[in-house]
Amino acid sequence: MVVYSFYVFDRHAECIYKKKWAPRPTSTGSKSQQVNGLMDGAPQTKALSAEDDAKLIFGTIFSLRNMVRKLGGEDERFISYRTGQYKLHYYETPTSLKFVMVTDTKTNNLRIVLHQIYVSLYVEFVVKNPLSPIEHPGGIGVNCEMFELGVEQFVNASLMS
Predict the structure, then answer these.
(1) Is the pTM of this model over 0.70?
(2) Is the dihedral of CA 111, 82, 101, 17 positive or negative?
């Protein structure tokens, strides 16, 4: 399994943590080459910055989550979606923290894994840390070395092996 990236968004739609392991693959067609959704000969745009990428991810999960709730009712939950190049996994906590992991398409559902990251790493190292702020205004992210190290070790040990 390949893990491309991991994001944590707070209840104010701010990305408070992001980590990238591998770049997402670009799509290739059999007759023509596609790069970032554009066909050959079309003007190419430069790669998204990390902040723009996080905004795009949040916009996608926000839209899909709302669509699922409108079509299926309040009890329905958005868990993941898959494209030809990647699969996005989603977990939302009762306090509206959103945990998002982007992996390759062959990966099974990681909702339980995201819940474990929340319970065993985020709660233990960020929430219970008296030096960590309760809110993250203006995009000030999680600045906890133990959380970062724990996420890195957790992903490497359980997902990339």
Answers:
(1) yes
(2) negative
**Three-state secondary structure call for residue 143:** coil
For residue 15, what are the β-bridge partners? 9
The phi, psi pair for 51, rounded to 5°, reads -70, -40
CA 104 to chain centre: 13
Report the amino acid identity of residue 133. P
Tokens 């067609």 — which residue?
29
Q: How far apart are CA 42 and CA 14, in angstroms?
A: 33
Q: CA 19, CA 160: separation in Å to the nearest integer?
A: 15
Tokens of 31: 């007759």
pLDDT at residue 41 is higher than 50: no
pLDDT in tens, 134-143: 776 665 678 8
What's 112's DSSP letter? H
The DSSP-derived string for 122-142 is: IIIIIIT-TTS-SS-GGG---
Dump strand ranges (E) for 77-156: 80-82, 87-92, 98-103
In single-letter form, the type of residue at position 49 comes to: S
Assess contact for 19 and 148: CB atoms under 8 A: yes
87 neighbors 105 (Cβ within 8 angstroms): yes
Amino acid at 63: S
